[in-house]
Amino acid sequence: MDRIDSQGYRANVGMILMDTEGHVLIGGRAGRRGWQFPQGGIRHQESAEEAMYRELREEVGLEAEDVETLGCTRDWLRYRLPERFQRRQQPVCIGQKQRWYLLKMLCESECVRCDTTLEPEFDRFRWVRYWVPVSKVIYFKRQVYASALTELGKLASPPPPPPPRWWPRHWRPFAADQG
């Protein structure tokens, strides 16, 4: 059962999985064209950290001992769904609020699997440069991705390059505050 707050935002965790070279993992949505970070809902009676490890196992086949947690966003990062994706029946869901985790891979990249559940979220993976996921994710999640990558980038090893020049102007003040 989804955890949805009184404003209609579904509680969710997102994972930025980083390799030793500073690349991050994105997954191709099963049967679709889109790419995104592993993420998923937080169940009732489940902490954000418990949900993160469950989703890590379900979506990419990794266990807690396969990663090191480098950090988590201070607060919830929210995005509103376009109206055509909003759920209007009870419980109403207008968007997601997410806690993001930066994880360092401790195992080989061959450990990543998308066939650990009956209905996999992803059917392919790729390792990309740090800021690339912002341009690959569906448009309404881009600012949350930029915020999570910016905030958690301070904890990354190796450190990421500066944010790209193609970012919209309204994202740049946030990135400058994080430096």
The CATH superfamily is: Nucleoside Triphosphate Pyrophosphohydrolase
Helix content: 10-25%
Distance between the termini: 38 Å
Order of helices and strands: EEEEHEEEEHHH
In the CATH hierarchy, the architecture is Alpha-Beta Complex
| Mean of residue pLDDT values | 91
Contiguous low-pLDDT stretches (5 residues minimum) are none
The main sheet comes to: 5 strands, mixed
CATH fold label: Nucleoside Triphosphate Pyrophosphohydrolase
Overview of this structure, please?
- This protein has helices at 48-60, 132-136, 142-153, 172-178, and strands at 9-18, 24-29, 35-36, 39-41, 67-72, 77-80, 95-105, 122-128.
- It is of the alpha+beta class.
- A hairpin with a 5-residue loop joins β2 and β3 (35-36).
- It is globular and about 45 Å long.
- The model has no long low-confidence stretch (mean pLDDT 91).
Itemize the secondary structure elements and their pairings.
Elements: E1 9-18, E2 24-29, E3 35-36, E4 39-41, H1 48-60, E5 67-72, E6 77-80, E7 95-105, E8 122-128, H2 132-136, H3 142-153, H4 172-178
Parallel strand pairs: 1-7
Antiparallel strand pairs: 1-4, 2-3, 2-8, 5-7, 6-7
